[in-house]
Amino acid sequence: MQIGTLSARTGLSRDSLRFYEKRGLLQARRAANGYRDYPEEAVQWLGYVRTAQQLGFTLAEIAADLPRLAAGDAAAPALRATLARKLADIDGRIAALQGLRTELASRLADTPENGMDCPLRPA
């Protein structure tokens, strides 16, 4: 299918499709007329890419997992492990942000009356 059709079916712009192709996330053959010709499976692949991005995966991480996806059900345990690692990473970032939020709230609560005239002064 041509790039316009793929764009319409996935909701991605032509520029996005070209970007994904340049990054190795999408492959197209060249037709005799020089146009890109994408396989039908590209729609499903791009759905995976978009979902993975929404779940916090980088394009590099997604590209690394493409061979596993091609392996089908045999790769399910490895993909589950990858998802578990990403979940642990997200939990770690949430904990760090909660700590940062607590510190910031504490500094905002400090007032000149309790000896803190500049909330950015080292504690």
UniProtKB/TrEMBL annotation:
It comes from the Bacteria. Keywords: DNA-binding, Transcription, Transcription regulation. PROSITE patterns: HTH_MERR_1, HTH_MERR_2. SMART domains: HTH_MERR. Transmembrane segments: none annotated. PANTHER family: HEAVY METAL-DEPENDENT TRANSCRIPTIONAL REGULATOR HI_0293-RELATED (PTHR30204:SF94), REDOX-CYCLING DRUG-SENSING TRANSCRIPTIONAL ACTIVATOR SOXR (PTHR30204). It holds the Pfam family MerR_1. The keyword Cell division does not apply. Residues 1-68 form the HTH merR-type domain. InterPro entries: DNA-bd_dom_put_sf (IPR009061), MerR-type_HTH_dom (IPR000551), MerR_fam (IPR047057). This is MerR family transcriptional regulator. It comes from Pelomonas candidula.
